[in-house]
């Protein structure tokens, strides 16, 4: 926003400087009848002082119009990039913060699932060994058959 204000202040100074140059004391003095008619910007030699002033006013009007158009383009570009950068930076920051939070939660969940898997594997191993022990205790002949060499 500060940059846009700077551009506007610069343009205002340029506009007022141009206007003050257009009204110099030399141009305010009426032309004497003995003075030769001025030739300015392709005006014919027989043009009067009024024609010269009117031509200069027309050129100044074109210049001011051109400067206004350029200022409008520059202001639009500055405001578009300024607003775009600010909002995109905020959007990017908020998206990054949200993504980081989601990633942190996913890592915590993955760690909790790993712990739960390890606990379940340990419990399964414990239950299998208990099952094997009870099976051997209840059926001793099955144990002997399991450890016996295969018959030919």
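^ Assign residues to that structure.
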């Amino acid at each position: 926003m500060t940059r846009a204000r700077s551009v506007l202040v610069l343009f205002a100074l340029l506009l007022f400087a141009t206007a003050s140059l257009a009204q110099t004391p030399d141009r305010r003095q009426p032309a004497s009848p003995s003075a030769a008619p001025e030739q300015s910007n392709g005006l014919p030699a027989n043009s009067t002082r009024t024609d010269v002033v009117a031509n200069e006013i027309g050129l100044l009007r074109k210049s001011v119009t051109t400067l206004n158009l350029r200022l409008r383009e520059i202001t639009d570009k500055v405001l578009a990039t300024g607003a775009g950068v600010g909002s995109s930076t905020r959007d990017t920051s908020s998206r990054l913060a949200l993504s980081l939070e989601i990633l942190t939660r996913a890592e915590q969940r993955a760690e909790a699932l790993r712990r739960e898997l390890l606990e379940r594997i340990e419990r399964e191993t414990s239950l299998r060994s208990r099952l094997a022990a009870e099976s051997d205790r209840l059926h001793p002949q099955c144990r002997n058959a399991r450890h016996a060499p295969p018959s030919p």
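The mean pLDDT is 75.
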